[in-house]
Amino acid sequence: MSMFLDTAKIQVKAGNGGDGMVAFRREKYVPNGGPWGGDGGRGGNVVFVVDEGLRTLMDFRYNRHFKAQSGEKGMTKGMHGRGAEDLIVRVPQGTTVRDAETGKVLTDLVENGQEFIVARGGRGGRGNIRFATPKNPAPEISENGEPGQERELLLELKVLADVGLVGFPSVGKSTLLSVITAAKPKIGAYHFTTIVPNLGMVRTHSGESFAVADLPGLIEGASQGVGLGTQFLRHIERTRVILHVIDMSASEGRDPYEDYLAINKELESYNLRLMERPQIIVANKMDMPDSAENLKVFKEKLAANYDEFAELPQIFPISSLTKQGLATLLDATAELLDKTPEFLLYDESEMEEEAYYGFDEEAPAFEISRDDDATWVLSGEKLEKLFNMTNFDRDEAVMKFARQLRGMGVDEALRARGAKDGDLVRIGKFEFEFVD
Predict the structure, then answer these.
(1) Which pLDDT band, with edges at 50, 70 and 90, does 350 fall under?
(2) Domain presence at residue 349
(3) Which parts of the sequence bind GTP (predicted)?
């Protein structure tokens, strides 16, 4: 079984904030000591950090749940709880992070050491020292810590390569990679010898260097899921130049020009923007008997079917076996890379806006629905956050929560919907009676 993994679905949970404390200063010579309960500590964030030593997402195959520590609770003497350390999760270069629910791209991690907070820890709850007022100098109120952010993420690895080798199976991509780099891909005289992308570094005679990826062989219908193509087409997206390798010997009975059209059609079907990348046609296996004649016919067909105003792609005849024409091909590739900018992988519609961890002012503070058992159900981000941060062990905190609901207009909204004295109202798993 292949040990290459380039997609993973994981769940992350940031740490909850620590609960605030209710405490009072009681010392022999300190009259009217007052409140002395400290705040809770901040919960830990979940942070992705790029590690250039990782090559796959295999670590996420067996460990799919990542949970940061919660902050410490507040303490007496007004002492704050300790904030939790962030949970560091290492990912390989080229990892794209999406929100599984919305499908939006959160970040594209490509630089070694790059960091991104994927889930933010909750703030610590306030202790009763924070609620002291002239009217209430000894409050028995404290807050629970804010819940940490929880979300499901989709990770996609797209290999970091400047140049991608594409073409039908057995056209010689792996052999070409093995002779121009120090990579040692598996090479065999059968289709789909390469079942995972292979990466290698090229250094030309003039001193230029670039990364080349040998991508598993595409076949007709790859963009619709045929063969291995759909699984690894994503890796072409990061490349800036495509080397389109074609078997000019037609050793498998296929027409080289038809091969060229078929592969381009798959690239276009998968992602129209792949056709923006400049291509160099690599006419391989020129050491075979019929290759020269086939190349001549290929050039005629290409010229006949190209727009007269369009620039024909460069064609380099080579033989990976005899190393004929390789130096010229690599110099031309390096020259084209110098002129080709990086391509934007995602447009604004695919990217999630910078995360805002406060309340959305435009979102309704609460929503009212009714369950099958006739219970009124209250929901909404702001309301649920207030509920979670309320310490229901303290009567004063419960009364404060009731006042907050009234201030939000919950009582009036329930009356308008037909709620009557004694009706049950539910928030999460907590139920109470509506008092008119």
Answers:
(1) low
(2) no
(3) 167-174, 192-196, 214-217, 284-287, 319-321
Write down how long the chain is.
436
Is 269 annotated as belonging to a binding site? no
- Answer yes or no: is 2 within a domain: no
Among 344, 376, 394, identify where a domain stops. Answer: 344
DSSP code at position 70? P
Structure tokens that stand for 261 in this block: 């059209």
Which helix (H) or strand (E) segment is 62 a member of?
A: helix 59-62
Q: How confident is the model at residue 356 (pLDDT cuts 50, 70, 90)?
A: very low
pLDDT on residue 270: 80
Residue 354 CA to residue 104 CA, distance in Å, equals 11
For residue 307, what are the contacts with CB-CB under 8 A and spacing of at least 6? none
Facing residues of 430 across strands?
A: 427
The residue type at 59: D
Q: Is 169 annotated as a binding residue?
A: yes
Question: Is 60 marked as a binding-site residue?
Answer: no
Is 320 annotated to bind a ligand? Reply is yes
How many structural domains comprise the chain? Answer: 3
Task: Report the predicted TM-score, pTM, of the whole model to 2 decimal places.
Answer: 0.83
Say which amino acid occupies 424. Answer: L
Local structure of 276: helix, strand or coil: helix
321 is in an annotated binding site: yes
- Concatenated DSSP letters for 103-163? --EEEEE-STT-EEEEEPPPPPPPPGGGG--SS-SS----BPPPPPPEEEEEEEE----SE
Euclidean distance between CA atoms 237 and 343, whole angstroms: 8
Return the axis-axis angle of helices 256-270 and 291-304, rounded to nearest 10°.
50
How many CA atoms, within 13 angstroms, populate the side-chain half-sphere of residue 71? 32
Confirm whether residue 20 is marked as ligand binding.
no
Assess whether 241 and 275 both reside in one domain.
yes
Q: Are residues 144 and 176 in the same domain?
A: no
Is residue 322 marked as binding? Answer: no
Which range marks the domain in which residue 136 is found?
7-157
Beta bridge partners of 109: 95
Establish if 225 belongs to a structural domain: yes
242 domain residue, yes or no: yes
The pLDDT of 260-277, averaged and rounded, is 85
**Res 222: pLDDT:** 45
Q: Which two tokens stand for residue 49?
A: 């950090």
CATH number at residue 153: 2.70.210.12
pLDDT tens per residue, range 167-186: 888 888 888 999 998 766 55
Residue for token digits 């010579």?
29
Nearest alpha carbon to residue 248 among 318, 304, 189, 303? 318
β-pair partners for 315 = 281
Q: Percentage helix, strand, coil, to 5, in the chain?
A: 25, 25, 50
My answer on whether 225 and 142 are in the same domain is: no
